[in-house]
Amino acid sequence: MATSFRGPLFGTATLTINGDTWNVVGDAQYQVSGDTNETAKGQSAVEGFGQMPQEGWIEANLRSRRDVAMSSLQGASGLTVVLTLANGVIVTATDAWQTEQVTVNTQEGTFRFRAESATVTEDIVS
């Protein structure tokens, strides 16, 4: 029988990039790294599967800051990105690289940040 979890299941999130805290606006998402399976199909049968490594990523809408030039994030690498969720999950990307263009919405002061890494893990803190 499954145990019921008491406490927040969703809600707040915080994100740090190399130890600097950024305000998460709207949403954040992640995918852990690890192997992914791909079905091998021939013309006459499903033959099995192949396995390949898959990068992980952390992505979030962040609020821009007046003390950091957005250009400093563009093309950045060697990043440590930590996403902490209300439900106790801590997602960490080590030696990560920034992959999307940093486009700032000036009316809201927000931008989308995405970092990818060969090592993205999740830890559950109870």
General description of the model:
The protein is mostly beta strands and 126 residues long. The chain has a single domain (13-124), classed as Beta Barrel (Elongation Factor Tu (Ef-tu), domain 3), CATH 2.40.30. Helices cover 0% and strands 60% of the residues. The protein has no helices and 11 strands. It is globular, with a radius of gyration of 18 Å.
Walk me through the topology.
Elements: E1 13-17, E2 20-22, E3 24-31, E4 34-41, E5 46-54, E6 56-63, E7 77-85, E8 89-98, E9 104-105, E10 110-117, E11 119-124
Antiparallel strand pairs: 1-2, 1-7, 3-6, 4-5, 6-10, 7-8, 8-10, 8-11, 9-10
Low-confidence segments: none
Level-2 CATH architecture: Beta Barrel
Taking the sheet with the most strands, its summary is: 9 strands, antiparallel
Structural class, from secondary structure content? mainly beta
Helix share bin: under 10%
Overall, the morphology is globular
> Which sequence of SSEs, written as H and E, runs from N to C?
EEEEEEEEEEE
Instruction: Say how many strands there are.
Output: 11
Amount of beta strand? over 45%
Name the quaternary structure: single chain
Mean pLDDT: 92
CATH topology: Elongation Factor Tu (Ef-tu), domain 3
Question: What is the alpha-carbon Rg in Å?
Answer: 18 Å
Q: How far is the N terminus from the C terminus?
A: 19 Å
Number of individual domains: 1
InterPro entries: Phage_Mu_GpM_tail_tub
Protein name: Phage tail tube protein
Organism: Ameyamaea chiangmaiensis
Which terms summarize this structure?
single chain; 126 residues; 9-stranded antiparallel beta sheet; two-stranded antiparallel ribbon
